[in-house]
Description:
By secondary structure, this protein is mainly alpha-helical.
Amino acid sequence: xxxxxxxxxxxxxxxxxxxxxxxxxxxxxxxxxxxxxxxxxxxxxxxxxxxxxxxxxxxxxxxxxxxxxxxxxxxxxxxxxxxxxxxxxxxxxxxxxxxxxxxxxxxxxxxxxxxxxxxxxxxxxxxxxxxxxxxxxxxxxxxxxxxxxxxxxxxxxxxxxxxxxxxxxxxxxxxxxxxxxxxxxxxxxxxxxxxxxxxxxxxxxxxxxxxxxxxxxxxxxxxxxxxxxxxxxxxxxxxxxxxxxxxxxxxxxxxxxxxxxxxxxxxxxxxxxxxxxxxxxxxxxxxxxxxxxxxxxxxxxxxxxxxxxxxxxxxxxxxxxxxxxxxxxxxxxxxxxxxxxxxxxxxxxxxxxxxxxxxxxxxxxxxxxxxxxxxxxxxxxxxxxxxxxxxxxxxxxxxxx
Length: 401
C-alpha cells in the first residue's frame, strides 16, 4: 500500500513524501526508523497512483542511462552513496524519477542497501538492474557496475530505438496506401463511374469490377470500419493476456524479414544480458532467469526458463539451447566452445556484438528494400484504378469527337 506522509526530522526540517508498506503500522515504523516525527500519514489510492505513474509521468530509458552514468562518475570520485543520490535527486529533470531518488535517499539513510532501495521501483529499475547493483555491492565494485549498466542500457536503448524507428516508416507508408485507396474507392471512383454509366457505352470487364468494388465500399464501408475497430479492440484485449502475448510474439517471429530482425534483436539482448551479469559475478542460473524476465519475448522467455531448469538438472547451457529451433546453431556451437574453454563470458560478448551488427544490417536492408517497393506498389495501385476508369472516359470522348 502507498502512504503519503508529512513529518519533521531531528533538525526540525519539514519532510513530506510517499512510502510503500504492507499496512499503516509498518509505514509508521519505517518512518520512525528514519528518525522522523510523523505529523500526518494518509493512505493514497493505489490505482490512482499507478495510473498517474504509468500514463502521466513515465521515466524514459534514456534518463536511466544518464542516471547510471552519473552515479558511476560520482562513485569514481569517492562520493558516498547517500550524497550521490541526494545530489542527483536535487538536479534530475524528470519529476517522477526525482521523487523516486528522494525516497531512495530516505531508505539509504535508514540503512537500506542500494539494491534494496532500487528494488522498490520496478517500473524504473528492472530485476536485471537491481541484481547487477546487488552483485556490485557484494564485490565492492559499484562504480564499475554502474558503468557496465550505463553501457549496457545505452546499447539496448540504441538498438531498440533503431529497430522501432525502422518499422515506423513502412507502417506509415502502408497506412497511407490504404487511406489513399479508400479515398479513391469512396470519393473519386463513384464520380467517374457516374459519367460512364450515363454514357450508355460498353464498359470493360475490369472497369466493371472496379466500379463494383467502389459501390461495395460506399454502401458497406461503415460496417467494414466497425468490424476493423472491433477487431482492433479484440487484438488489444488479447495482447493483455499471457496467452495472447505468447501468440503475438510467436506470430511476430514468423513474419518474413521482420521475424528475422526480431530474432536477432532478442538473441543480441540475451547474449548481452548474460555477458554483463556473468562478468559481474552473478551465477549462471540466476543470470538465465533474470535474462528470461527482461528479454521482451514470451517465446524466448520460455526457452530461457527451460534452459535454466536444464542447467539446474546438470545439463550444459548449449545442450539446453540445442533443443529449441528458435536458437540458431551458430549460437549453440559458440556457447559450447565457451563452456569447454571456460570463456563463456567472452563468447557471449562476441555473440552480442555479432547480433548487434546483424540487427543493424537487417534494419538497413529492410528500410532500403521496403521504401522503393511500397512507393512502387502505391503508385501502381492508384495508377491501375485511374486507368481502369479514365480509359473508358477517354474512349468515350474520342467517340464523341
